[in-house]
């Protein structure tokens, strides 16, 4: 429906229904005889009353107002918006995976435990780690879990002075936030002119209060941290551990492994590197991997193989405990497992080779039209620094909004913070040369429009369901729920 | 060539020429040789789609699902009926292949659904505001506890022993690293011991966490607890089952400050423990302490109603190390399924699901206890779960049930050693009289 603009509450009509339940077949008893009136709610919850057709039309119309990877190119840097294979949705929905209870006896869920055990092994192999826990529900949750493990490790050695974590200024916002939530103080270090860790700066902050360093490699600029070995040695010599933020792992599968670079604790994002859908903001999954000396600190339970059967091992006195109910986002793990089996060892390496080639191709074509602060080969993504300033004051935001008119999801903008007017482009390996070329053409066209018709960009988008939205008004009026006819 | 990667060798050649490189490997010269993996990953060769499908069916087939077994197990994950349209609509790929709605002009679908979700959760819980969802019930409860700590600048959190053991466990792991003390309040006859709680709550208490219906399915009366907590200017946190709110007094009506809970039972499959969604709803007074994404209504430059993420100044990507929560994502697709479920069931349907579950659970309790082999552990008003104990260990009873393809109850001794032979059974609207009678019949003869 063109211009459909209703809330579900606005199409509600007393007496309509979209559900059917069998008649209650146990003897009728009054509710009051089971639950005293004082424990019952005074008024009914205001949920909509609509027919089944209403529900289907309403949400189908809303889906038409969305843009997904299936709609078109989604070069959102740091988010690895690759194709989400359909077969993975099918297999995760099989009753044997989707309809099992987390507290069933282990002998009735051997397939599920085997899947988790094998996924742990495969992710460990890819990252160069000893064991992986699938419990964390997202990347940030994985960071927090990994930092808890680092703290538990130092405490177990009686080294209780180590309460600081080093985080580069190029890091994802979750890095310092996770460290703070894990009870650490944060030491932020300035990156060098290439966005890399400056060895002298690092040396200056290392001491016996440092618990560890958090790093993304490739960095948030899409560049490989070439001094990683020296960085690892310096941190280890100072008694600290290295944490790897796996947001950018799509660049290195089968080519280099965080474990071999010297990282002690890692997380991977199944919803980025391993193709599980982002779901409009979740569910994700952020498994945490550790080197052998840290395995004993992993969250409980750890899945172990005893003879031919798989068990949930809770008897782990050094464990940090639990960070989530049950065993993590199992349904997401099923899809990632299916993805790895679909790719195989060669396929995973090809993913990284092609992701990096696609990124370098776009970069080589766009650097003549947009500022490229660091001109060297990139990994799976690269960061432009907006349009050259020609006095028209067209911003990175304007470029992003204009891309919407041409049917593209814009890249990540204004991140990393160390690049002004950043435009962070990550094409992924699942995009064809034709798609990349069309995107490049449009980006060049927009650069031209910025010179010739800057207002066109400043007032973009023109062609979307809604146009630029007044964010200040949203924050000022704070309408956070539908409030009957008062609106 | 792999089916997920379109570029051919010829395409690659063109691209490499344009870059000025000879092979894709040339683009990796920045990775020092000694750090390169010199061997192939020790992972099997790729499977075709058919082989993968067969493998997954076979692996899934070694699990016994709630399609194969009649499920009387609850304890935090529930076998409620999910209408067919929930999955159909959630599988619209414009929803599930989208990222977080950072570009609101092309994300109005996701944003409006979160706005509708927020409205429904507020209505169910009777609270003023809620966020776009959290990882699960347990982590939502931790975030609520941190809100209480931040709000009062106090560092003691009291949690009733009738709160789900998993929730208490997650709470303790988090708080251990934040110098917040977690003290458990004892229970008496299956509910929070109000006298003992009163003795524990003091001027340093940031918050008190209770669960309703509690872990044993019992509906606790919060009247006294609310007075004790607020007399000490602490925050009352209530962990609730959203289905129960079809009929039970809402947290808002009970004077609760933060309502949290596990939203799985709202249209999400049990999926071996996740992904689920946690919800967190609170008062206007505590709104700015609330973590997580929030959607607000605004308008675009043409005056059209539009939705957008708002109050982002609270969030980690702005506050970085000053953030009090590191949560970044929500459980968007799970919240979407919960929204479609709540819409489909609607005002009357959710109430009917709650009523049928209550009636069937009470019928089951009567059938189980009438022969005298099992007795009800606590004689208190309950919702869809209740605890019984007989002469045989719970594990033995469950083994016998499993032989009859019945998934029995949660063995309470695992978490409460004093509840000898205790079994926590759950009965949802999906169970039939015939299934309940069979359960009672098998249990009756297990010694």
Order of helices and strands of chain B: HHEHHHEHEHEEEHEHEEEEEHHEEHEEEH
Strand order of the main beta sheet of chain A, please? Answer: 1-7-6-5-4-2-3
Q: DSSP strand (E) fraction of chain B?
A: 15-25%
The total count of helices of chain B amounts to 13
Which structural category fits the helices and strands of chain A? alpha/beta
The low-confidence parts of chain A are: none
Instruction: Name the CATH architecture of the largest domain in chain A.
Output: 3-Layer(aba) Sandwich
What does this structure look like?
The complex is a heterodimer of chains A (487) and B (447). Chain A is of the alpha/beta class. Chain A has 3 domains: 8-63, no CATH class; 87-342, 3-Layer(aba) Sandwich (Aspartate Aminotransferase, domain 2); 350-472, Aspartate Aminotransferase, domain 1, CATH 3.90.1150.10. In chain A, 35% of the residues lie in helices and 11% in strands. Chain A has 15 helices and 12 strands. In chain A, the strands form 3 sheets. A 7-stranded mixed β-sheet of chain A has the order 1-7-6-5-4-2-3, sandwiched between helices. A 3-stranded antiparallel β-sheet of chain A has the order 10-12-11, with helices on one face. In chain A, helix 7 (174-181) links the parallel strand 2 (164-168) and strand 3. In chain A, helix 11 (330-366) packs across helix 13. The longest helix of chain A is centred in the C-terminal third of the chain and has 37 residues, at 330-366. Chain A is globular, with a radius of gyration of 25 Å. Chain A starts with 30 loop residues before the first helix and ends in a 10-residue tail after the last helix. The relative contact order of chain A is 0.13. With 447 residues, chain B is of the alpha/beta class. Chain B has 2 domains: 70-81 and 346-444, Alpha-Beta Complex (Aspartate Aminotransferase, domain 1); 84-340, Aspartate Aminotransferase, domain 2. In chain B, strands 2-10-9-8-7-3-4 form a 7-stranded mixed β-sheet, with helices on both faces. Chain B has a 4-stranded antiparallel β-sheet with strand order 13-14-17-16, covered by helices on one side. In chain B, strands 1-15 form a two-stranded parallel sheet. The model of chain B has no long low-confidence stretch (mean pLDDT 96). The chains are: A alpha/beta (487), B alpha/beta (447). At the A-B interface, helix 2, helix 3, helix 4, helix 5 and helix 6 of A face helix 1, helix 2, helix 3, helix 4 and helix 5 of B.
